[in-house]
Design goal:
- It contains 18 helices and 20 strands.
- It is an alpha+beta fold.
- It has five domains: 116 residues, Beta-Lactamase; 106 residues, 2-Layer Sandwich (Beta-Lactamase), CATH 3.30.450.20; 100 residues, 2-Layer Sandwich (Beta-Lactamase); 125 residues, PAS domain (Beta-Lactamase), CATH 3.30.450; 49 residues.
- A five-stranded antiparallel sheet has the order 2-1-5-4-3. The protein has a five-stranded antiparallel sheet with strand order 7-6-10-9-8, sandwiched between helices. Strands 12-11-15-14-13 form a five-stranded antiparallel sheet.
- It is elongated, with a radius of gyration of 48 Å.
């Protein structure tokens, strides 16, 4: 990128035939060439660092300040306009007519405007108009104060479609759409009052009936006595500029996609990649030439086959963005965790014609989350130590070789650190759980954490005991898994407490059953007693009846 102070850049400005003044958006002069020194009468050091208004008459400073602000807000090449006269101010205070072109340039110091200024002193109005025709492609039209066209240059013929023979002598109202007639009359009124209209945005009408956007600069034409006798207009077609700006917006959007830090890609609805920005190249290692035209499934790990197809199907069916976290495969075969946003690309009819994807590498975020997980596990271990429990903390390589062994591990397993460091972690697993230990290390090697997994481990003396395992991967500065660490908690005491609680519960249930049985027996005895009383009462009643009968009837009774 160019910068002021670069010898080649400043030499090219110095070699220009016109007076060159370079200023920044604040209007501060950053550079002038030797012609500018000669034109304005100042030494270079007197101008650089000062505001550009020093070169403009006081009566024009407010207008020129507004024009400068508008230019930086909407920069594009402004060629010599030569219709409305501008005025410069010499160091001695004298004023002189000038015209200038302005171009925009981006430098290391920010945006700058480069003005090439030309002295019009001594040029008559016809000469100026002739120069305008020579140096500008804009339509130049002269008209009487009543709006009757008196001159019509070749650019006007090309722009409006009328030849000079067809239009000279006819009203300028012919060039305006019906809804702009009042506007054109108002402009002629301003000209009659001696006022200039600059860069007025409007629309005009071609011979074929089509309308197009224009920028109008209209100045009064005066006779030798200073009386306004007509108007001179410069009409600039903005159609091309708008197309250029449309392309610029597209270019800027493309440049943004190219320069942004996230991997941005697009694909057909079926997943065939159609665009691939530099960030995607950096993230995944493939160039755009390698990936465009290739299926996005190439980036999916084998154990996630079909996942991307499912996501694309959801985007197509819902017509809405989807946010997912997944793993992608780099060109070198390594995996990278990403957070992806996939959104449909719609045409004017709302039909999905593609899918855009933004992928963000979340390795560092995962590392931070892993750090928090490790911290939480260590705090939990510390709290356990405070409460009288001591956890074993063990570091292991991806191959399962022990690299660290804390005092808690020595106490729990019965091995010293000298005995265990360099040995396989499988020493601590019963024979029927060797595959389980290998699977746990493999899972952590993929970056996954395991929390409070209950299993069984074996001590040095051969006894087994229940444990709770919390396993986490160890990451390097680039987020790659380089090892595993585990926190082992002995559950023997907890299981003993659980057994004691179960024993007490069983005893309580037995006591309640015994009590219930005793209560049932007591009720049954009471019931039997009641039955005996009833039988006795019935026997007494029978004997009473017998005693009341005639003795002679007793034989019969017997």
């Amino acid at each position: 990128m160019l910068r002021l102070g670069d010898a080649n850049f400043e030499s090219s400005l110095e070699a220009m035939d016109a007076a060159v003044v370079v200023c920044d958006p604040a209007g501060v002069i950053r550079f002038v060439n030797r012609h500018a020194e000669s034109l304005f009468g100042y030494r270079r050091d007197d101008m650089v660092g000062q505001r550009i208004e020093m070169l403009v008459p006081e009566s024009r400073r407010e207008v020129d300040t507004a024009l400068r602000a508008g230019y930086f807000a909407d920069p594009f090449l402004r060629p010599l306009e030569l219709g409305p006269e501008r005025t410069g101010r010499h160091r001695d205070g004298t004023e002189f007519p000038v015209d200038f072109s302005v171009s925009h340039i981006e430098t290391e110091d920010g945006p700058l405007a480069i003005a090439a200024v030309r002295d019009l002193t001594g040029l008559k109005r016809p000469d100026i108009q002739a120069a305008g025709v020579e140096y500008s492609d804009d339509a130049t039209i002269d008209a009487t104060i009543e709006g009757i066209v008196t001159s019509w240059n070749a650019a006007a013929e090309q722009l409006f479609g009328y030849s000079s023979e067809e239009i000279i002598g006819r009203s300028v109202m012919l060039l305006g759409p019906e809804d702009r007639v009042g506007e054109m009359a108002a402009i002629l009124g301003k000209i009659s009052a001696g006022l200039t209209t600059e860069h007025y945005k409007s629309r005009r009408l071609r011979k074929d009936g089509t309308t197009f956007p224009v920028s109008l600069t209209i100045s009064p034409v005066r006779d030798s006595h200073g009386v306004v006798v007509g108007a001179s207009a410069i009409v600039r077609d903005l159609s091309h500029r708008r197309k250029v700006w449309g392309r610029r917006r597209e270019d800027r959007a493309s440049a943004l996609v190219e320069s942004i830090g996230e991997a941005i890609t697009s694909s057909t609805p079926e997943g065939i990649i159609t665009s691939w920005n530099p960030a995607a190249e950096r993230l995944l290692g493939y160039t755009s030439e390698e990936m465009i035209g290739t299926s996005a499934s190439l980036l999916t790990p084998p154990d996630r086959a079909g996942e991307m197809d499912q996501i694309l199907a959801k985007v197509r069916s819902s017509h809405s963005p989807r946010e997912v976290e997944s793993m992608l495969v780099r060109k070198d075969g390594t995996l990278v965790p990403v957070a992806m946003t996939l959104a449909p690309i719609l045409d004017a009819d709302g039909t999905i014609v593609g899918v855009s994807s933004i992928a963000l590498d979340v390795t560092l975020r995962r590392k931070a989350e892993q750090g928090l997980h490790q911290l939480a596990a260590l705090l939990e271990s510390a709290n356990a130590a405070i409460s009288g429990e001591t956890d074993a903390i063990v570091g292991v390589t991806l191959e399962g070789i022990i690299t660290s062994w804390n005092p808690g591990a020595e106490k729990m397993f019965g091995y010293s650190s000298e005995e265990m460091i360099g040995k396989s972690i499988q020493i601590l697993s019963p024979k029927n759980r060797l595959d389980e230990a290998a699977a746990i290390v493999a899972k952590a090697s993929e970056g996954q954490a395991i929390e409070r997994y209950e299993s069984v481990r074996v001590r040095r003396d051969g006894t087994t005991f229940p444990v709770s395992l919390t396993i986490s991967p160890i990451l390097d500065a680039d987020g790659a898994v380089i090892g595993v660490y585990g926190i082992v908690r002995d559950l023997t005491g907890q299981r003993r407490d659980q057994r004691e609680i179960a024993d007490w519960r069983d005893k309580a249930f037995k006591w309640m059953e015994d009590l219930e049985q005793s209560q049932r027996l007591s009720v049954m005895r009471d019931f039997e007693r009641e039955l005996k009383v009833i039988d006795l009462q019935q026997e007494v009643e029978r004997l009473r009846r017998l005693a009341a009968q005639d003795p002679r009837d007793l034989g019969d009774e017997r």
